[in-house]
């Protein structure tokens, strides 16, 4: 049996929420240990330019920002580990976690910052231009600005898609919205807003066949009407996917209260507390509304402060 490691504060996940929690926890002498997770740096590592994080007047790339956050967390001696937590047991007073290398960790406090993953259609051409940073995005608020004065396509029919289509309509000359059924899933108010926006064209019963490009950047989208079978080509320089997110919370489901869509529920609004004493949550794992780097960082700070108070209260 491998040796059990005892830690004061275990941080699971390494996006802006996790790194901010680490910076605060380390400066409060909580000797945090961080497991970075499957995608060190989180969702922002797939974002090209970040222009809306305060403090970067010239913008910064997502990966560069994560390198800087990691360096800042290390500066205060956060123990950052490349690896992920595969299993947890929060049934007793000790919070037990197991890492992918088999190590068993007993943590006095745990900060969950495992984030969420945007869903994509999974088309080869979509993934190609996503990886190239050439016009595919799952976040209009993050990337819409790069397409101002241009034509874009957005896929999805939920509240996110409507909100993002409306956001894009203020920047782009035209937004084409592809809805796979003959109706929206979004609330009436959101779908009405989209329907009443002049430069948004909604194509119902329409599915994406291919994202078109010149090898570097997106130039259009080929879509098909699933009733008539007719294919059309839509000119666009940006292809936005807004078909939902999956919070990375599966390993916690037996112990932590989740809502019906898998997001972690806050025990007390305005805090980072979960239903388990000593376990806190930060970032997109509990946020389906804002999902911004800066809001994730803010809740990371809250989680570290809440964890510090918890540790003081139990005499650490
Ligand atoms: P939803 O799960 O609500 O909607 C996802 C949408 O994507 C659905 O319309 C679905 O179509 C469509 N979709 C899924 N897969 C595909 C595919 N392969 N091809 C084409 N379309 C696809 O996700 P959201 O992110 O929109 O919302 C998540 C939650 O957050 C909801 O509860 C929502 O109400 C909430 N929210 C609230 C906001 C607000 O109030 N301001 C803003 C944003 C989100 P179909 O309908 O056919 O299944």
Q: If you had to describe this structure to a student in words, what would you say it looks like?
A:
With 316 residues, the chain is α/β, with parallel strands linked by helices. It has helices at 16-27, 62-75, 124-132, 140-143, 159-169, 188-195, 293-313, and strands spanning 4-12, 33-35, 49-50, 60-61, 79-81, 85-89, 95-99, 104-112, 116-118, 136-137, 151-155, 174-178, 200-203, 206-213, 218-225, 231-235, 238-241, 245-247, 279-281. It folds into 2 domains: 4-117 and 245-313, FAD/NAD(P)-binding domain (3-Layer(bba) Sandwich), CATH 3.50.50; 120-241, FAD/NAD(P)-binding domain. It has 7 helices and 19 strands. The strands form 5 sheets. Strands 1, 2, 5, 6, 7, 8 and 19 form a 7-stranded mixed β-sheet that branches. The chain has a 5-stranded parallel β-sheet with strand order 10-17-11-12-13. A 3-stranded antiparallel β-sheet has the order 14-15-16. The two termini are 28 Å apart. The structure holds NADPH dihydro-nicotinamide-adenine-dinucleotide phosphate. NADPH dihydro-nicotinamide-adenine-dinucleotide phosphate binds at residues 121, 155-161, 163, 180-181, 185, 243-245, 288-289.
Q: What is the count of structural domains? A: 2
What bound compounds does this protein have?
A: NADPH dihydro-nicotinamide-adenine-dinucleotide phosphate
- Strand-pairing-aware structural class: alpha/beta
Main sheet characteristics:
7 strands, mixed
The percentage of residues in β strands lies in: 25-35%
N to C succession of SSEs: EHEEEHEEEEEHEHEHEHEEEEEEEH
CATH superfamily of the largest domain: FAD/NAD(P)-binding domain
What's the CATH architecture of the largest domain? Answer: 3-Layer(bba) Sandwich
Shape: elongated
Number of strands: 19
The poorly predicted ranges are none
- Distance N terminus to C terminus? 28 Å
CATH topology of the largest domain: FAD/NAD(P)-binding domain
Number of helices: 7
Radius of gyration: 21 Å
Helicity level: 25-40%
